[in-house]
Amino acid sequence: MKPEIQTPNRGIAKVLLIEDDPEDALLLREMLAQRRDSRFNLECADRLQAGLERLGNGGTDVLLLDLSLPDSIGLETVHKVHAHASGVPIVVLTGLDDEALAIRAVREGAQDYLVKGQVDSNLLVRSIHYAIERHRLLTELEQAREKELRLKDQFLSHVSHELRSPLTTIQQFITIMLDGLAGNLSPEQREYMEITLRNANQLRTMIGDLLEVSRAETGKLTVERRRFHLPELIAETLRTFHTTAAPKDIVLSADVPNDLPAAYADPDRVRQILTNLIDNAIKFTPKNGTVSALGHVWDQDSDFLRVAVTDTGCGIRPEDTERIFDRLYQEFNAIEGNHIGLGLGLYICKELVSRHGGRIWAESQLGHGSTFTFTLPILSMPRLLAPILTTKNLRAGSLALITVVLIPHGNRLLTKADENAVREVRNILKRCTLPDKDILLPNLTLTELEDIFFVAACTDRSGAEVIASRVREQLRNCKYLQYARLAVTTSFTMVDIPPMEKRMNVERIVGDVANAVGDTVNHEILQKKEDSYDRKENSHHRR
Amino acid sequence: MTAKKILIIEDDKDLLRGLNVRLRATGYHTVFATDAISAISVARKEVPDVIVLDIGLPCGDGFTVMKRLTSLAPTSATPIVVITGRDPSAYKDQALKAGAVAFLHKPFDNDELLATIREALGEPSEKTSPELRTPNA
Hints:
The complex is a heterodimer. By secondary structure, chain A is of the alpha/beta class. Chain A has helices spanning 22-33, 48-56, 75-84, 99-107, 121-162, 164-178, 187-217, 230-239, 242-245, 267-283, 345-355, 381-385, 391-396, 419-431, 461-476, 479-484, 506-542; strands at 12-18, 39-45, 62-65, 68-69, 72-73, 90-94, 112-115, 226-228, 251-255, 263-265, 290-297, 304-311, 331-333, 338-340, 360-365, 369-377, 398-408, 438-440, 452-457, 486-496. The model of chain A has no long low-confidence stretch (mean pLDDT 87). In chain B, helix 2 (36-46) packs parallel to helix 3 (62-71). Chain B is of the alpha/beta class. The interface between A and B is medium-sized, with 36 and 30 residues.
């Protein structure tokens, strides 16, 4: 018994032929019509465009495709069809007997490749049936794989969240014991509780890593980039390791010039990367070693900062310096003679660095130590403004910098409780910008909670007034600002754009305009600081 | 000065007990509830200064509780600190939008919890006394 071809049209396969030669089309129609055992419903299109439109209507079971069409030639034709309707199996049918081309066509997404003149009715029908079956199997496989991946990620995410509650309880009771809230501990009891706490903390890191990996795989690993100073962050991070390094007499040092240009990155993520690298360095370094962190402008690309963590540990075999960044790579600790961790830390570092547009790599001499290096973009006004400083916008000749300043009532500083308000101001400003014309600049204040926001808008003075008044109106209606007891002022400054003349260096104009915007931004931030200082002084005098 | 009153709403009874010990030792007065329904009645009766709220609860989740509390007179202005093991990327915004003043992801540091509570109470931020601080916890 013959197996039934599975098509939605109850055994009648709907075939679309895209072929510009009417004689070839007629020939194929006859070949299909000869068959008594299979039934086909053949439609023809003589141009790719017309064919794509038919495909768009749906219902096509298989596509017979000529590669030399009036509006598309060669493999490009397969590529276009596949991009347009990847759900339809394709049988290429051409006059070219070219094995290499045939293979490339299959790689581009075709199921089969037939040469005109070598095709008879049997071959054609078999090829059509096989194409449909192959395509169906492939689709099923892909769907099953996707489903499996999704389930795995859901499971990872679920597990790492479920593990958190009991861990919170464990940590709480350990610290209750250690803080003496349940009576005094003997030195031995204290030591054991400290060991327990250290292990609970390790567990916590691993659970965090599991979650990060599932985020990385589903594209949910977020980075919130802003302007920040690396030297402080490096010093701060190193400080948190003093208690870990002390028992092994490991010296921690930093070499980072204080006048390093500001980075454009997510400081929490950079801390996470550094913490991981320093933690590893200490783990793999024997007693009396050193772990040092350095940061400077990268000599190979001055748009980037280079950060390196160097240790005097056991080193990495040359063949492993790339593999260690792979997911689930298990590091063997020669010092403690065991495998440690889940093998996720460096993979997460790599994901985080690449999300910032940077690179990470390791260099090592076995037995003498390792250096882990990553790069981070330097904050660059020309690059931030590039999307709107197009030749067209530059020609229009004017740019406005709209500044929104938050002033907390009663001279207090912004606190975490103002987070909602800050977030909402950002959302409102985002909504007030036009794509290609305006850009809401990232947080440039060097603090986590921004009290001053900037929108660069390619518009003239009257346009800037319109934007500013729209911003004012929206902010007035924002209930978060009312709750948070924050006053808001909105103002704007015009930035000159030199007239565009023929053969002028656009890059230089972009640079000049961006610098002017940068200067205005810095001036406004400084001004805001001075203002709040003055207000504080005044209120002191009044007291 | 009388001790500030904190309502802990948490269905994990072990964690509830741990938080209770911790917050009392810090000098707060604590009351508690372990499900969404009793949470609302305890809140109305006790009128706490701060509410520490878990999201996953029996008889309705933390969001239901927040909705009721923020719309009822005695608790409409009480600051709510959400504590949960759920993914912040999915729940943080939602919690803050629903009226929480802060979102803590489990497991959180005691320092973090205490600083958040102090801030919610509008108390000046100060370090916890040295003998109550445990490194890395």
